[in-house]
Amino acid sequence: MGSLYRIPDARCQIPDARLNDPETSCQFRLNRLSNIPDTNTGYQVHDVVQLEDRANACHPASGIRHQGSGTKMFNFRFGRRLAMAEESYDFPPFRPPSEANSLLLRVTRGCPWNRCAFCPMYKHIKFEKRPVHAVKQDIDTARAYTGGNIETVFIADSDSLIIKTEEMCQIVGHLHSTFPSLTRVTSYARALTLKRKPIESLRKIRSAGLTRLHIGLETGSAQLLERIKKGAGPETMIRGCSKAREAGFEVSLYVLLGIGGESSWQEHALETARVLN
User: Fold this and answer.
1) How is the beta sheet containing 184-188 ordered, strand by strand?
2) Helices within 117-198 (DSSP H only)
3) Is 275:217 a contact under the CB 8 Å cutoff?
4) Residue partners of 143: CB distance under 8 A and separation at least 6
């Protein structure tokens, strides 16, 4: 969920007891839709908050809405409860560092592979493809919430290009029609998915307005990729990323520094350079 916040901002009119309740051991955690300035107040949109009930005993009279076993939600915006549509917005749990200022849009939940030895990100999430109508509803909610002044969007979770090409084109098209100011739409993608997807499909998605793909290379070493259970070898990485570039995407690759340890650092460095080149 990220760091704990006490939210000292006076604009958020929440009693101290709800910020840190000693009787229930409840603490608020901040979960941001975006940090784009609110169009009505000029303040930062930073106050969509999830309440984690560590003792599973939050008071039912507190107005907190149940959101699964052991976790309850109390969403507010500058002292008011959010509308039901805002409360139902499906927040992605992760994003790349470069997408800190982007609107976060969840198209899939979890990871279709989910076996990488180094990655705990989605281990507790069953992989699901969200219905297109639900994603479009979140887009419409985001417009109402932000006022429509959005320049960049990140599509989550880990491999959203695994959905049908037509569905992705519909979603990206709706993003651009809803937010005419968009300059960049990005997504995580697996190299194996890109390798398997026809180049014509990738070009359609690029033409619809998806501009950049974030891909976890981790290492170019075949031995290390097998050891960390990446589910793709060096040649798959090369082929998948090359197809993405051929289709017109910007490609952002991630490398795990030190994944080779002391014994395989040279192989990690040289083979990663080979794959990147």
Assistant:
1) 103-106, 152-156, 184-188, 212-218, 250-255
2) 132-146, 165-178, 191-196
3) yes
4) 150, 178, 179
Torsion angle of alpha carbons 167, 168, 173, 174, nearest 10°? Answer: 70
Token couple for 242: 């090359």
Q: State both tokens at 232.
A: 């793709």
Prediction pTM value: 0.70
Residue 138: cis peptide before it, omega within 30 degrees of 0: no
CA distance 22 to 103: 34
Q: How far apart are CA 89 and CA 72, in angstroms?
A: 15
Residues 240 and 194 sit within 8 Å (Cβ to Cβ): yes
Q: For the chain, how far is it from start to end, CA to CA, in angstroms? A: 36
Along the 277 residues of the chain, how does pLDDT read in single tens digits?
Answer: 333 223 333 333 333 333 333 333 323 333 333 333 333 333 333 333 332 332 222 222 222 233 333 333 333 333 334 455 556 789 899 999 999 999 999 999 999 999 999 999 999 999 999 999 999 999 999 998 888 889 999 999 999 999 999 999 999 999 999 999 999 999 999 999 999 999 999 999 999 999 999 999 999 999 999 999 999 999 999 999 999 999 999 999 999 999 999 999 999 999 999 999 9
3 state DSSP class of 258: coil
